[in-house]
Amino acid sequence: MFKVAFLVACMALAATSVQADKKIVCYFGSWAVYRPGNGKVDVNDIDPRLCTHMIYSFIGINTDGSIRIIDPWADLSDGGGKNGFGKFVSLSKQSSNTKAMVAIGGWNEGSSKFSQVVGNPGTRFRFVQNAVNFLRQYNFNGLDIDWEYPNQRGGQPADRQNFVALLRELKEAFSKYGYILSVAVGATEKSASLSYIINQVVSNVDFVNLMTYDMNGAWNNFAGFNAPLYASSREQGEQAKLNVDSSVRYWLSHGAPADKLILGIPSYGRAFTLANPNNNDVGAPTTGPAAAGPYTGEAGMLGYNEICEYLRQGGWNVRRESQQHVPYAVKGNQWIGYDDVQSVREKCEYANRMGLGGGMMWSVETDDFRGTCGQKYPLLNVMNSVLRGGAPAPGPNPPPSWKPTTPPSAPPTRPTPPSTSICNKEGYVRDPQDCSTFYYCQNVNGQYTKYTYHCPAGLAFDPKINGCNYRENVAGC
């Protein structure tokens, strides 16, 4: 029996070693520093322990291959500016496992300038050199290429091969300095098939951020989810491919190693105005976007921080779509499809099952970063819980015995007959009097045997993850 318990502990530790390598990629939309009220964020509001990679968004590209700082007042310290670059890099140094990167491009930057730059070998070479110089000047650890999208939106068919050439040249130049190279990509089959030679893209970067969101929105004439995990049985054709699972499987089937794919998770929802408030199920006819939120100010899009405040105010009917594993909320003619703690947990569990390299959030400033509705960064915290074993990426001085999850490697105490109040089913259970003590209850011929374990100092057993977690993150401790 002791061998069985020891094997269980070893298996848990083996799973932990995999989780410890998972990435948590946190995009930061720098324009949020101008938002009003509770939506206004400063770089220093980011908790770097919750991210293995923080990505500052965005810088721009010019047709001559030079790099453009889009908002000098927000990004630089010159003339009394907000010094976003400097704060961001300094913030990452508070967490030894966290890298500070910068993203170039984005939706508003478009595609045509990228297409012109990469299509000319000389201009492409200049861009590569400018990228290296930019990272050196501002002390970033790497660059994220967010070209939306090759061979679309003003691009050309040659973009697909030229994009690979760009990544290959960046990879070679970055290797001399140890810089990280990642890409943000259109994830769905419809977009990816137009834009990428997938196996060649993936082989030339450190990781790929799958933008597995914006599957539906106000551009439709029906209410649909921003980022459903699976297809619904009511969907057909291309619509049935607009979900996380279909996108991930498409990339895997075209040669992407699972451990290089980072699953994108949105901290915002897509919202609609219903044509008829009494017809408010998924797929109901709509007349356009829902009203803009108080912080993001964009019709048809609401940050999770805005959504959770709406729900606290009352009057919303919240439902969960059982096939697609995401919630939606309805009030009058307003309909919001979004992600919450439960759906984020399920997506991260999916990422683990599929062997993916981790999770990415777009974007941290629309999580509940102030904790207005409860815990600060609830979505980002649950990502850490599932993907990295329950605790944020450690700071510079973690406890000497710290592990992302336990049971610890030390053997448990000898098995003892349990009281019925402790063991009533097989598995782990926390001591009701001592949060740092937990047990493994083993059913042997209808009788339970209890093995006792202890969390390292400063940690408590978290039944949500069946492992030890920072005490402040464990309910009831």
What does this structure look like?
The protein is an alpha/beta fold and 477 residues long. The protein contains twelve helices and 20 strands. It has helices spanning 2-19, 72-75, 84-92, 112-119, 121-138, 159-175, 189-195, 198-203, 244-253, 304-313, 341-353, 378-387; strands spanning 23-29, 53-61, 67-68, 99-105, 142-146, 180-186, 207-211, 261-266, 268-274, 286-289, 301-303, 317-321, 326-331, 334-337, 358-362, 427-430, 437-444, 447-454, 459-462, 467-470. Strand 2 (53-61) and strand 3 (67-68) form a beta hairpin. The longest helix has 18 residues, at 2-19. The two termini are 31 Å apart.
What's the topology here?
Elements: H1 2-19, E1 23-29, E2 53-61, E3 67-68, H2 72-75, H3 84-92, E4 99-105, H4 112-119, H5 121-138, E5 142-146, H6 159-175, E6 180-186, H7 189-195, H8 198-203, E7 207-211, H9 244-253, E8 261-266, E9 268-274, E10 286-289, E11 301-303, H10 304-313, E12 317-321, E13 326-331, E14 334-337, H11 341-353, E15 358-362, H12 378-387, E16 427-430, E17 437-444, E18 447-454, E19 459-462, E20 467-470
Parallel strand pairs: 1-2, 1-15, 2-4, 4-5, 5-6, 6-7, 7-8, 8-15
Antiparallel strand pairs: 2-3, 9-10, 9-11, 9-14, 12-13, 13-14, 16-17, 17-18, 19-20
Helix pairs in contact: 4-5, 5-6, 11-12
